[in-house]
Amino acid sequence: MQTPVSVEAAVRQRYSQGAKHKVRALCCPVSYDAQYLKRIPAEIVERDYGCGNPSKHVRPGETILDLGCGGGKTCYIAAQVVGRKGRVIGVDMNDDMLALARKYQPQMARSLGYNNVQFHKGKIQDLALDLEAFESYLQKHPARTATQWLEAQAHADLLRQTRPMIGECTVDMVVSNCVLNLVPNADKRQLFAEIYRVLKRGGRAVISDIVSDEDIPRALQNDLELWSGCISGAFREDAFLRAFEAAGFYGIRIVERGRQPWRVVKGIEFRSITVEAYKGKDGICLERNQAVIYKGPFREVLDDDGHRIRRGARFAVCDKTYHIYTREPYRSHFEPVPPRKEIPLAKAKTFSCGRVEPRHPRETKGMRYKATTAANNNGSSCEPGCC
After folding, report:
1. Where residue 98 sits, what CATH number does that domain have?
2. What gap in Å lies between CA 374 and CA 387, rounded to an integer?
């Protein structure tokens, strides 16, 4: 199999060509909101390569990180959505693509009335290392011997620790458009760990990429032309979602999936998919007598932590899971059941994560709850006098 260096060299060469002129084989047809495109220079729009539109999930005021930003199209769309109070960061390792993105920064700032976009040179699987800062060091300290090379590596580690390009827990949303498949297979686990690292708690990743319906045989993996064309490094569809799961994400779901394959190579279908995943389920589990009711439509569901929740039952959950289920992407499927008397966090005991059972209503109402009340029509669908 080709070494990661060969893969990276092939990708750099092909996308350098793509920065200078349109290469149709590098992209799928994708539609964007015209109101955002009209502000972006035609050269950037023409030389954008992707397979989805994660920018449609961006929200005002957020800090957005675009992995493999290329000529900056997604960044400049996101800049308009997040507004003056938001921030957009693009990361790419290709000099020609970065030059294209930066070329129009002053023009875009004047058009928008604010400058909220910045671009960095770096590998998306190593978001702590600013390659331009590292290159500056190498110009002053060339690595011509093994000792000098080791010293350079030590300096790179120092930069990661003291001057990280993207800091830990600093980003609201990570987006990427048809780039993760270009990363060498040996680096893909680190790639997902880096996405997780830079996201804030409660942050999310929305990633568009090309996936396959079967395992990719070794012969195709050795084809650098297919690799740089988003084919040979593609995840198998189910493995793509499992990679998010292995990195610690929750709420993982497919938000878009191409019905028709983009390409078929030796009977293997390659199609566009967009996945959304959230960060923030880590932490201790505390007992506060909360429950959730799964509303359906399935008889029961099994969540990422092994909780099997039957439709209609009051299911006992810890405080962390309770709050997760009251947010997207779960809140439309679950009804929260808070305790009648709230237990302060400082007094909450540890919740047994192995508990997979309904919660008795008396646990949330209180064992001594004996109230008797009149009919309550507040917020009900009944009209006065109907019952």
Report:
1. 3.40.50.150
2. 12
